[in-house]
Specification:
The chain is globular. Helix 1 crosses helix 3. It is of the alpha+beta class. A four-stranded mixed beta sheet has the order 2-1-3-4.
């Protein structure tokens, strides 16, 4: 599963990355996590507010840090 965290590398982006990794680990899912900080690449996803969670090329969450349980639902 390809996961991208879109954002500048701010504290919220870091929290989202950590929560996503933990959720995947708890579900037993292997993910490839990439942190995207390039503003042009972020805008190519039509994301104007970060952080954003992209799963297999589809933006699932943007502008907030979801709970770990919400991330689990998205990943499963």
């Amino acid at each position: 599963m390809e996961i991208k965290i879109l954002g500048s590398g701010c504290q919220k982006c870091i929290k989202l990355a950590e929560a996503t990794e933990q959720a995947a680990k708890e579900l037993g899912i292997e993910i490839n996590l990439e942190k995207v900080t390039d503003i042009e690449k972020i805008m190519s996803y039509s994301v104007m507010s970060t952080p954003a969670l992209v799963v297999d090329g589809v933006v699932k969450i943007k502008g907030r840090v979801p709970s770990k349980d919400e991330i689990k639902k998205i990943l499963s």
